[in-house]
Structures are given as C-alpha cells and as structure tokens.
Amino acid sequence: METRPAVRPAVGGPDRPVHRAREARLGGDRRVPAPRAEIDASWERMLRSGVDPEKSPESELLEADEIEHRRRSTVLGEVMPLLREGLASIADAAQQILVVTDPEGRVLWRQGHPAVMRLAKDICLEEGAAWSETTTGTNAIGTSLATRTPVQVHSAEHFVRALHGWTCAAAPMRDPRDGRLIGIVDISGPASTFHPATLALVGSVAALAESELRARHLVAIERLRSVAAPLLCRLEGRAMAVDTHGWLAAVSGMPPVDRLPLPKSLRPGPVWLASLGMCQVEPLPGGWLVRVAEDRDEPSPRRVVLDLSRDRGFSAHVVGPVGTWTVRLSPRHAELLYALALHRQGRTASELAQDLFGDPTRTVTVRAEISRLRRSMAEVLSHRPYRFGEGVEVEVVHPDQPADLLPRSTAPVVVRARTSAERV
User: Fold this and answer.
1) Which of 189, 194, 197, 198 has the fewest beta carbons closer than 10 A?
2) Pairwise CA distance, residues 387 & 364, whole Å
3) Range list of H helices, 234-348
4) Burial 9-47 (b: 16+ CB within 10 A, else e)
C-alpha cells in the first residue's frame, strides 16, 4: 500500500518583500512597488472593487446537475482527457491539483493529490465554486480570466490573506473556431510546492488543448465538405457551404473566403448577409448551404446590424438604398445607437441625454453627437424624435455575457441593460 506524505499549506510567514508591498498598498501607500506589473494591476482592481482582503474564500456552489449541464455545454469536455494526461499526473506527483473552469471562473473539474484536494475545500477550491477576481481576489484563475493571459500567483501575491499559503498558475483556453474564451486550466497547491516552470507547463498544455480543438474542427470541415461538394456541383449560380461558425467547406461560382460572417440568430430561409447581399440559407449536417440571390432588380432592404460583441471595435453594418457599408463607432456613438435600438418609437434630445448621462439638460451634447452620426447614417436615421427610420430592420449583436455590454460605459441605459431584461 502506497504511503503518501502529509501535505499542509506553508505555515511560515509569507514572502516578506511581497507581504510589505501588499500591506503598504492596502494602507494606501503606493511608494512600495508591487512584485510584478500584473499583480500590481490586479491589486488595483481589487481595491477599486472593494474586495475584502481579510475574508475567507467562500462561494455558493453550483448544484450537481448545473455542473453537469455546463460540462456538456462546453467543448472543454472534448479536451479533458488531454488535460488530464498532460497535467493531472504531474500535479499529483508535485503535491498539487489540476483545476479547470468555465469562462465565468466556475470550477467544472479538479483532480490531483488527494491530501491537497482535501485542503482545497478549506479555501472553497472545489467543483461548482466561483474563482473570478470579484469573488476571490487576486488569484491565478481569476486574474487570467481578467487579463486573458497566463498568470502565476504565489503566496502573499494573493489579495486575500487566507490564500497566502497557496501557489497557483493558470492559462486561458480559446475556441480556435471563433477565438472565444472557453475556460481556464490551473495548477494549484501549497506554497511550498511552488516551481517557476509550472506556468510554462500550464501554458503549453493549454496551447496543446487548443491545437486538439483545431484538429477536430478541420475534421468536421472535411466531413461537411464531403456532404456539400456533390450538392454544389448540381447547383447553378453562386453558393457556398459553411460550418455553424461560418468557416468555408466548399464553394461554387464565386471566389473562396476563409470565413463568412454569420448573424448569431441565423435560421433557414431568406437572409441578408452584408458581404453577399440577399441569400437563401438551408441547413446541412454540421453547417449551412448559402445560395446568393441573383435577382439584381430586387430592392435592397434597409437594415442596421449594431455589433457590440467585442470589448473594443464597435461597428454598425448598414444596408441602405444606395448600398452597403460599415461605420466604425466611438463608444459614445455606440451608446447612442443602442439607446435608439432599445427605444424604436424614438427619443427626444432630453430623453437621450437622460439615457447617456443621467442628466436631461445635456441636450447640446446629444444633438452634436447625433449630427456627427447622421453624416454616415442619414439613410437609416430620422429625427423629431430621434429614431431609426420607418421600415429599417435593427439587429444588435450582444457580447456572450450581458455584463460585458459596452464594458467601459457608465451610461444609465447601458448599465440597466447589463443587469436587467431591458435588452434589444
């Protein structure tokens, strides 16, 4: 019978220079430098958000059926065998544990040294727990979520004092099909198990997992191509087969593209695509058949797609009687158009000032911004009151998480939409 040595969090004092820097920062003294730039930035976020550095890590755990639902709903399950093979045995031998979370920082899987698994319960590092920065302070999982980069956090670098006996290294994993964050892979253990190479190891395995997903995607594209190619050979005109993310599998009668931008709410039937015009869309196993309408005399629909799905780079794709174009939006113009999309009946200058600034008297600023917007969007914007014109279809492309809607905006209309059902 194998005998395992007892494992305990480090009981000695935390790293003294780091501890002094943390205590100085908590006391408002910025003269003592933080150990590293990413830790300094995280501590600043924690101070601004009001995280209590003396609280014990705690979280309302997800129910077992919700954990299982999240596991089935993510592609992470496809690469868990690879993550276990690459890290679980190493974590066990190094007296650490492997932890994998979803994009919200909720722990979906954990595995490793049994004694450390038991210790981890004391800091609520268990399945279903939340490990974002807002719930647990500076830690490798939460800070990697916040920065979208690999991060190692050791001992007193943790903002919450109860975690000073721990060390952790984490890296983000992205879906290669669309670049979306799908989760975090992490190695955690007592501070005495710290090793500087752990971060490189975790980052390499995360990259390997992304490569595995990329290979699976290429197999799926080949499978779709084998179904679609015979169909395209029998069709006249321009057509293409794409997967559910818009990646090209086959094309006929037109130049190939790597990826076709698709609306999130795509359904079979006629649809206007900004890059192709009016199309007929039909389902295929694992994708879509997109046929370009060839009737040049059919009038173009008037349509606006307001894309707010990214942290930066907001845009409006406009289809009007004179053609199709894309307008790059400043954050203020994105807020204005979102307010108009939310209130299709129209808004007065005073109402828009209330929506944007919480101050109905700031009408001069509103009118000036609307005037600038109309230089590129006059075909689809009307006034008296300000609104999208009659017959204009408006679609808003939201970020995956409601809280990420125009994340730097303080406009009341946006703040309400992040936390309520008041969404377009």
Assistant:
1) 197
2) 17
3) 331-342
4) bbeeebbeebbebbeebeeeeeeeebbeebbeebbebbe
Which H or E run contains 220?
A: helix 198-233
Task: Read off the tokens for 366.
Answer: 């509103």
Instruction: Output the pLDDT for position 19.
Output: 83
* Mean pLDDT of all residues in 281-303: 78
- C-alpha dihedral, 37 to 40 to 45 to 48, nearest 10°: -140
Strand-pair partners of 331:
none
- Continuous segment of H or E residues that includes residue 44: helix 37-49
Q: Give the residue ranges of DSSP H helices in 258-348.
A: 331-342
| Residue whose token pair is 């917007």 | 373
* Residue 11: per-residue pLDDT: 41
Q: Among residues of the chain, what percentage have pLDDT more than 70? A: 93
- Tell me what pLDDT residue 15 has: 67
Does the pLDDT value for residue 9 go beyond 90? no
Contact 274, 326 (CB under 8 A): yes
Enter the pTM of the model: 0.68
Give me the torsion for CA of 160, 166, 171, 175, rounded to 10°: -80
pLDDT of 379 > 80? The answer is: no
